[in-house]
Amino acid sequence: MKVRVQTEPFDAGAELNAFAQGRTDVGAVVSFTGVVRDTNGDLTEMQIEHYPGMTERAIGKIVDEAIGRWDLADALVIHRHGTLTPGAPIMMVATASAHRAAAFAAADFLMDYLKSRAPFWKKEVTAKGSDWVAAKDEDEDALKRW
């Protein structure tokens, strides 16, 4: 299990290859990469803040839960902070399991958690100003299925 919270960009393909390399004990590797979305066409940047240490521990706990709940062989979560531009990779989740259903479910669970509960604060900056991103009802509802 690996959790990384970083400012540096990452190469999702290289991360996935490294995550899966040499794994002969699994039948499924699932990954998801989220990118900064410019919903209204006017986003200049997204600023992401977090509390070092606290954030990694919180994500680590939920990864441990996913590993136990779906009997994962391994899991990876990368999440960036700092100033990001539209289209930039913001996060990545990868899971490895003996079977695809477990790998997909665990990845979906981790993504729902990261979207709604991980201790990050996001501010969208446009030419008109900036606004903190509020939690969305649909993101909260997604957590209820777990």
Question: What attributes does this structure have?
Answer:
globular; 146 residues; Aldehyde Oxidoreductase, domain 3; 4-stranded mixed sheet; 35% strand; alpha+beta; 35% helix; 4-stranded antiparallel sheet
CATH class reads: Alpha Beta
Q: Which runs of at least 5 residues are low in confidence (pLDDT < 50)?
A: none
- The strand order across the widest sheet is 1-4-6-2
Number of domains: 1
Helix % is 25-40%
CATH superfamily descriptor = Molybdopterin biosynthesis MoaE subunit
- According to DSSP, the number of beta strands is 8
Mean of residue pLDDT? 95
**Largest pleated sheet:** 4 strands, mixed
CATH topology: Aldehyde Oxidoreductase, domain 3
How does the helix and strand content classify structurally?
alpha+beta
CATH hierarchy: architecture: Alpha-Beta Complex
